[in-house]
Specification:
heterodimer; A: 225 residues; mainly alpha; three-stranded antiparallel beta sheet; 10 helices; 4 strands; flat; B: 402 residues; alpha/beta; three-stranded parallel beta sheet; 12 helices; 31% helix
């Protein structure tokens, strides 16, 4: 007795084509949609204003917090209002064509549409001030020092970047590396914006004291609140 | 092919003419075996009330949507029951897929989002740190001090202002809900004028023009025929504006009206003190409190302040405790004050006036000087009210005059 109809002979072929198509579609979706460029080290989008951190932070030596003000007080690192740009550029290069979007924003009140470079997923909570405000470390001899994470630890040598690019893979494994062993990334709180700071032997010898002072969370709820 | 045998009775013994005989319960099997299926079906039908009809297409779950199957002659379908188009299983499938998609969306950081900073940053605003603004909301003639938390220019929470004497750090239910007023889509966005049955939006320039026209029209007659309707206020600024208005247009009339108002309180204060005052109670020194149709601990204006001064007299475990105060409540409806009272008397609101006269008469009989109202009280019927609510209670009150 013939249980299966004849058409079922094509079933393996149909299945193979379907599997190939579905596999291709899934690969494409993940490749195109779930793997955005802005999560990769080196992502350096073109900004509406060709602002050079190398010039302003590097050569001119403007402190990070002149523009990203109160970053050690607030959860967010503020992108400065146009006002901050115009504070200097009303006088410095007031006619520059490259600053036209800044002047336009100042005149119209519309924001400059900076392209976001560092973007955390919605389910993770990051607080700039927690990393920058400084924790009090006490040495064996009783002396105290306030330690914090420097800008360069996550953002790289911004002062050498003509166009800002992602310097570190801002992903959970990378975060946890430091949360498990914060010592090497801690520095005196006065030096957080110093791009060229290097620890001396004395500082390195106290890394354990520093790590104990900050005691970063490693449990899920620390960041996934 | 499945090797599981269907729950079928052998057809050679139980041939009903329609193929295999299936059963779903032991009772049904019994009934089929004993040939009493009709009785069982009747029993089952009796268990299913409703507008049943036979021979209708049955809808069954299949995929997301229900599929209609061919009519079965002897199966009832409840025609009164609305048949859902979406099967229960289909609903769960679609809902689960949607939830998974939402959860996945949270992980995705699509390229190219923008950061839009201010052009001209507002003063003292640090993104990420909330600001707090002190403000005041009106409670009839009273005012309630509030502290509004604002995140990047968006108010998110309203709490009491600890430094304001009528709030002392607390808010009432209405103040907690004011936050929704700020996001109410029906909230007016600007001036409007009534045109026929509806409202038409106007610009502030229109308001200025209309006001100037009004002022011009009433300059000669000093405001005769001009009527202003306004809510009651205790705001010094608003009162100053009203005084200036009255000075400019002496013939105009200004009416104050509020749907829930303290008119009786104001009239009572007027009678008691001979001038227009707004009573602010201090219960911290009161030994005996009589609340007559007054919810001074609940919904009345100034209730937060009242609670703060009334409450400590009842903190019996407090080391610096004083003699516990005593609260009598006479009221027509349930209220927080009535629930708090040591003695509660329910009374029609219409009888409150005559009760007060009876109380005054009793107090006068015990030696309280009544002054100008003695004549009005003399005819009061003290017998109409429970004696302990004006006789023994009066002793309590007389002993603690203040």
């Amino acid at each position: 007795m013939q249980i299966f109809p004849r058409q079922l002979n094509y079933l393996p072929l149909v299945l193979a084509v379907a599997a190939f198509t579905a596999g291709g579609a899934i690969t494409f979706v993940f490749w195109f949609y779930f793997s955005p460029k802005n999560l990769q080290v080196g992502y350096a989008p073109e900004q509406p204003v060709p602002y050079s951190h190398r010039l302003h932070a590097g050569e001119l030596g403007i402190d990070c917090r002149y523009c990203h003000a109160n970053v050690e007080q607030s959860a967010y690192s503020m992108v400065p209002p146009t006002q901050t740009c115009m504070g200097c550029h009303a006088v410095v290069h007031p006619e520059s064509a490259r600053l036209a979007p800044v002047r336009e924003s100042w005149a119209t009140g519309d924001p400059i549409e900076w392209v976001r470079i560092h973007q955390l997923p919605d389910h993770s909570y990051f607080n700039h001030s927690a990393h920058l405000y400084g924790a009090k470390a006490v040495y064996e001899d009783g002396s105290e020092v306030r330690v914090a994470v420097g800008c360069t630890s996550c953002h790289g040598r911004i002062d050498q970047m003509e166009v800002v690019a992602i310097a570190e893979p801002i992903a959970m494994g990378w975060c946890l590396e430091c949360h498990r062993n914060p010592g090497p990334n801690l520095r005196p709180v006065e030096e957080i914006t110093n791009m060229a700071w290097e620890p001396d032997e004395e500082w390195v010898s106290h890394q354990e004291d520093h790590a104990r002072a900050v005691n970063p969370p490693e449990h899920c709820n620390g960041c996934h609140r | 092919m499945s090797r599981r045998k269907p729950y079928a009775l052998p057809t050679d013994r139980f041939d009903t003419g329609s193929g295999q005989v299936m059963w779903r319960s032991l009772e049904e099997k019994e009934a089929i075996v004993s040939g009493q299926t009709t009785a069982l079906r009747k029993e089952a039908a009796a268990e299913l009330p409703g507008g049943f009809a036979k021979g209708l297409p049955i809808v069954e779950a299949g995929g997301l949507l229900k599929k209609a199957k061919a009519p079965v002659a002897d199966v009832s379908v409840d025609i009164l029951q609305k048949q859902p188009r979406l099967s229960r299983r289909g609903f769960m499938q679609a809902g689960g897929a949607a939830t998974a998609a939402l959860a996945l969306q949270g992980c995705i950081r699509r390229p190219e989002s923008n950061i839009l900073p201010f052009s001209k940053g507002p003063e003292y605003t640090i993104p990420g740190i909330p600001q707090h603004f002190a403000t005041v909301t009106a409670r009839g003639n009273d005012a309630l001090g509030l502290l509004v938390e604002s995140n990047e220019g968006r108010p998110t929470k309203i709490n009491g202002n600890a430094e304001h004497p009528s709030s002392l750090g607390a808010t009432d239910t209405r103040a907690q809900l004011h936050i929704w007023d700020l996001y109410d889509p029906d909230r007016s966005h600007g001036p409007a004028s009534s045109e026929g049955d509806s409202w038409a939006s106007k610009s502030w320039a229109d308001v200025d023009a209309a006001r100037e026209a009004l002022v011009e029209a009433h300059t000669e007659d000093q405001g005769a025929g001009l009527v202003v309707l306004a809510p009651p206020t205790s705001s010094p600024s608003m009162l100053r504006v009203r005084r200036r208005f009255a000075a400019r247009f002496p013939q105009a009339t200004l009416h104050e009206w509020e749907s829930v108002a303290d008119d009786n309180v104001a009239a009572g204060a007027d009678a008691a003190f001979g001038q227009k005052v707004y009573p602010v109670y201090n219960f911290s020194t009161a030994e005996v409190v009589l609340a007559v149709d007054s919810d001074f601990l609940g919904d009345d204006a100034g209730s937060l302040r009242n609670q703060r001064t009334f409450g400590p007299r009842r903190a019996l475990t407090s080391p610096d405790r004083q003699i516990m105060n005593r609260l009598y409540a006479v009221e027509a409806t349930y209220s927080v004050t009535g629930a708090m009272a040591d003695h509660r008397l329910r009374m029609k609101a219409a009888r409150v006036g005559s009760y007060l006269r009876a109380l005054a008469k009793t107090l006068a009989g015990k030696g309280l000087a009544l002054g100008g109202v003695a004549g009005a009280v003399a005819a009061a019927d003290t017998a109409a009210y429970p004696s302990d609510w004006h006789a023994s209670g009066a002793d309590d009150r007389l002993a603690n005059r203040g």
